[in-house]
Amino acid sequence: EVQLLDSGGGLVQPGGSLRLSCAASGFTFSNYAMIWIRQAPGKGLEWVSVIGGGGGTTDYADSVKGRFTISRDNSKNTLYLQMSSLRAEDTAQYYCAKFPYSNSGYSGRYFDYWGQGTLVTVSS
Amino acid sequence: QSALTQPASVSGSPGQSITISCTGTSSDVGSYSLVSWYQQHPGKAPKLIIYEVDKRPSGVSNRFSGSKSGNTASLTISGLQAEDEADYSCCSHAPSSTFDVVFGGGTKLTVL
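^ inputs. structure came back:
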């Protein structure tokens, strides 16, 4: 059974940093691209960052480029999102999710399994 | 890219059918068969219910169906049940210089 377990959220002051983690199980983690998606209170979903299965390809939404860094440790089956210079507008529930096709990069443009989310609140 | 447009809310009675629209442009929904739909109950993770416009993942009820016409994709839920009350979001491929998906704003379905 595929499981994604998000963690690391919390309350942080503007300008602060936080690292989110997503522990994966039930599939060959290194074969699949992964994505972080967030949902601000009362708003729609927004993709934040993506990473290829090997970790060599990454991309970021313009809203977080230069402030967030996505990475993965395939030996630990874990995805990360290092967030710095946090702003109030980064306040959201953050979800990790999995692409559906093995060894196919971002093919399909849909996400077949999601974590339960972790809440990040940026406030003084 | 701009978010896809969904109605903020829809409602229906048990047993009825409802349709949720997802309107994009000729650059996203209108050009690609890469529309997906997600169901989200309060406090829960989103769940994939439709992918590639009209395909259902294993285990998803056949009461859920997807379609597309022009720049608008639609999710239809037939035989409404109380458990269908949730938020529904659409997503489409949207070519861009960065990664290329865009989501709708979400629709709250109320089962009366």
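Chain B has no helices and nine strands. The longest strand of chain B covers residues 86-93.
thumbs up if we can close this ticket
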